[in-house]
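User: My collaborator sent over this chain with a note saying "see what the structure looks like." That's all I know about it. Can you take a look?
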Amino acid sequence: MNDPEVLEKLAQANAGMDEVAHEVINNADSLFTWDYTKGARPRLEKLYEKAKRSQWNGETDLDWSIEVDPYGLFEGVDDELLRPNRYDLAAPPGSPVKNWGDKEWREYDAASIKWRMSQFLHGEQGALICTAKIVETVPWIDAKYYAATQVVDEARHVEVFAKYLDTKLDGRFPINVHLGMLLDDIIADSRWDMTYLGMQIMVEGLALAAFGMMYQTTQEPLLRKLLRYVMADEARHVAFGVLSLEEFYKELSQPEIQERQEFAFAAAVRMRDRFLQQEVWESFGVDTKKMTRIQLEYPLEGQIFNQLLFSKIVPNCRKLGLLDAGDGWLRDRFTEIGVIQFEHLEDTGEEYESLDAIAEDRAAVSA
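Assistant: Without extra context I'll predict from the sequence alone. Here is the result:
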């Protein structure tokens, strides 16, 4: 965590909060296909039809007149379900927050929620860019069709998260350095399936789990409704990645699969590290290096949250054959970071169908 590249990017992120553009060189080729045969991949066609029926409007389907208390979004929630346990953070020798009282922790809690929502926002823009890239680079017309509907979904997600942050939480945090580096890597890779793996399986899979946990732990009506709509979309997005890569990965050689395993694990580590909330500690003037060390070296109860974030990623890596390919390299790595126990959780393909009904039934969303 003292990696000079990471520290430099963290400093750049905090210094460049007013920066309006970030350039990444896209090395991929744009592919046309002259095969317009519809229905060659029935499961993708079914997903595409569902996506067309399930569009929603963030301006008219959400009640933005609802008042939101930024300090009361998660009242009564156990620390371990939402954030690192404050007592564990204060207890280690030399902890920069050992003298914090209720006032400081109250402000930290509000900032932590705003930070988490900000990372959702930035991740959704990453998904917008990556899915537009999939439209350009995937060689199958049915995948291009579906990816185009996801571009619309992601634009809507960026819109509603930005509006919630700006009108209900009074602003946002810059993108986390680890998330930013991961998005750069996904976009810069020239291989179309790496965009799928990095975004549809890893980033979107983690987002679906995170949205689900946030939905279960808040009673704020506007946020709950927003999250249910977004979750319905995200579950289809993850299924899109699984359906596409299942077919493609069957044709790859073992060395090619090994590259995908290593890419998936590197993405997993970066996503784990993004939840160390360096930008929040920085905003309070806390020594970021010390807090990062404490969060990584001590057995915090809050690590339960970080582990649960992989509840969608690990089973989908198993479905793609990445867990046990070769000598089981990825299984060993997921075991080392304590998330392998999720490999047999409910299939995302089944889950997206139940969630999708939410977007089709406006009354259900209002419940």
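A starting point for your reply to your collaborator: Residues 13-17 have pLDDT under 50 and may be disordered.
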